[in-house]
Design brief:
about 260 residues, six-stranded mixed β-sheet, about 5% helix, mainly beta
């Protein structure tokens, strides 16, 4: 059979099916939730204590139920990571369906990382994803730790779809990007040429799920590079970002605007 539906009568939904679904629903973002003590970290000598909290990692809900201690290596720098490791095997106690049944989950743990952080795509064949929740700097006997705030609903900067409008990037280090953080959509662009774009003024389109409910109009802030022209920008309910061309300049445009999601 080449087609299935996991949420179907009598079918099985595996943890990986579940994780794939949840990850897609949050735009494949990872981060801590506003739960418990938000995975706060304290340090005493070389002992770091990670407090309670929850995180979503590749669609998997992970929780530190009780504060947990980690020993930091001396004279080092690195990160404290919440790690999902699918190469591990969980331990099963008892028989499924009986009151004695329980699972010891070994596929998630806290780790001290002094080298590269591993961030595989667990929903596409990857094995290990490490979410940094703190960074540390240690001496022989003591350490300092800074909590890394992973905002769950932060997409990070992603490229706008400019191919559909005919706009082009031009010049040194150009970009046309969007970001969604705390239910606010941020747009920024630099070195954009709309000479051959639709109507001579369309830069690109944001994803449909981040469209405003009404047209957003405002003066785009000048992000300040030399010989780049700031613009007045608009985003309409069809997701198109377009600009009012300033002084007949249609190339090397720059600016940034933002709007809240309804």
């Amino acid at each position: 059979m080449t087609l299935t539906m996991y949420q179907a009568d009598r079918n099985f939904v595996t943890p990986s099916n579940d994780a794939s679904l949840y990850s897609s629903l949050v735009d494949d973002t990872n981060g801590t939730l506003n739960r418990g003590n938000k995975l706060g970290i304290t340090v005493n000598g070389l002992i770091a204590t990670v407090n309670t909290g929850q995180a979503v990692i590749q669609g998997r809900l992970v929780e530190v139920v009780k504060p947990e201690n980690l020993t930091l290596p001396p004279n080092s720098t690195g990160k404290i990571c919440l790690t999902v490791d699918l190469s591990k095997t969980n331990d099963v106690i008892g028989q499924a369906g009986t009151p004695e049944y329980s699972v010891k989950v070994n596929q998630v743990y806290l780790a001290v990382v002094t080298g590269d952080v591993l961030q595989d795509d667990l929903n596409n064949g990857g094995i290990v994803y490490q979410l940094p929740i703190g960074s540390f700097n240690s001496s022989t006997t003591t350490a300092t730790v800074s909590v890394i705030k992973n905002v769950f609903n932060d997409t990070g900067w992603k490229d706008l779809d400019i191919a559909s409008t005919g706009a082009k990037l031009w010049g040194t280090n150009p970009y046309a990007q969007y970001r969604v953080r705390n239910s606010v959509v941020y747009l920024r662009w630099r070195g954009v040429d709309v000479t051959n774009a639709i109507n001579g003024n369309q830069i690109g389109r944001v994803p449909w799920s981040f469209r405003p409910d009404v047209e957003i109009t405002g003066s785009a802030s000048d992000i300040g590079a030399d010989s780049i022209y700031p613009t007045i920008a608009y985003v309409n309910e069809t997701t198109t970002l377009w600009v009012q061309v300033v002084a007949n300049h249609m190339g090397n445009l720059c600016g940034s605007i933002s709007y809240p999601l309804a």
